[in-house]
Amino acid sequence: MITTVQQHILQQQQDMLKATGREATGTFSWLLSGITLAAKMVEAKIRSAGLIDVLGAFGAENVQGEQQQKLDVYANQALLHCLGLRDSVAALVSEEDEEPVTFNRDPETGKYIIVFDPLDGSSNIDVNVNVGTIFSVLRRLPPEHGTLEESILQHGFRQVAAGYVLYGPSTVLVYTTGNGVYGFTLDPAIGAFVLSNERMQMPEQGSYYSVNEANAASWPEGYRAYLEMLRTGGLGREYSSRYIGSLVADFHRTLLKGGVFLYPPTSKQPKGKLRLLYEANPLAFIAEQAGGVATTGVGRILDIKPEGIHQRTPFCVGSKREMEALRAEPVW
Ligand code: AHG
Ligand code: MN
Ligand code: MN
Ligand code: MN
């Protein structure tokens, strides 16, 4: 019999209730249904993108200084709408919005903060290459412990859930609530995400490295030395290069096949290009839950104390073997 993501999350909560005695509330599954509904809305648009007016630039610049694509805007509106209706949501933080969207809900009801990259890999939309959605869930701090703003800027290790949707040959949802990583495939016949991967584990070592080598001249020296070490058999095997330019797609391959993904500091982006709250943190949570490692090249991603909702970070994520070697190399 099939297991849908809703059934799975309720089962996880019952297991948690049994294991911890902690009252598991159904609000989280209701919350997740907001994400899956928005994902299905985005998926429907992507499937027929060439036939409807969703390709190309929207004609505005976002807070990142990027030209927004029409699908960036649509995906953002879909998530804001579907999640805003859930009364367990206290705030929504999006790559596409300069400030958090807050809902004046009392802390007893508005318990969760959802941080998301509504459409990741926008530069690939018009050439029909995989794009994705990334999300991270934080619990609001009790008022005596912190404000809503402080609740949004919690360390990555405080995430209660994280996941992504990858719109590709099939549409997959991968998520963790801290109790392993689970994959679901959208079954178009019934319009539901159905369990397809239990307790996903990243291989101890892979045979791919994934990095935009056009930036190599401006990386800190250690990264060039590290990649040369991989290329010349330093880890005892041959490597191939794979770089899709959609973080979710490059990450999903690394989760399934192992290896390493790197976005080092560059002269254009000295603090790294990828965003901590809605790209690095959620994927780092998933990577660690699957037995992988995620760092800035020096320290653990999940240990960073965020200072701003759009702050950037160098991002290195992958199998234990490749990441141990990266840590050993002085990458600065
Ligand atoms: P987004 O489309 O959400 O702005 O993210 C784009 C990111 C990420 O998807 C990818 O890994 C990276 O940009 C690619 O950057 P380069 O083109 O500089 O390699
Ligand atoms: Mn963007
Ligand atoms: Mn992105
Ligand atoms: Mn994006």
Automatic annotation (TrEMBL):
PANTHER family to which the protein is assigned, alphabetical: FRUCTOSE-1,6-BISPHOSPHATASE-RELATED (PTHR11556), SEDOHEPTULOSE-1,7-BISPHOSPHATASE, CHLOROPLASTIC (PTHR11556:SF35)
Gene: fbp
Subcellular localization: Cytoplasm
Subunit-level organization: Homotetramer.
Pathway assigned to this chain's UniProt record: Carbohydrate biosynthesis; Calvin cycle
Record domain Fructose-1-6-bisphosphatase class I N-terminal: where: 4-198
Coiled coil: none
Span of the signal peptide: none
Name of the top EC class for this enzyme: hydrolase
Recorded GO MF terms: fructose 1,6-bisphosphate 1-phosphatase activity; magnesium ion binding
Source domain of life: Bacteria
Cofactor or coenzyme needed: Mg(2+)
Record bears the keyword S-adenosyl-L-methionine: no
UniProt organism field: Edaphobacter aggregans
Cofactor note: Binds 2 magnesium ions per subunit.
Membership in a protein family: Belongs to the FBPase class 1 family.
Binding site for substrate: 120-123, 212, 243, 273
EC numbers: 3.1.3.11
Protein name: Fructose-1,6-bisphosphatase class 1
Keywords assigned: Carbohydrate metabolism, Cytoplasm, Hydrolase, Magnesium, Metal-binding
Residues that, per the record, bind Mg(2+) 1: 95, 117, 119
GO cellular component: cytosol
UniProt-annotated binding residues for Mg(2+) 2: 117, 120, 279
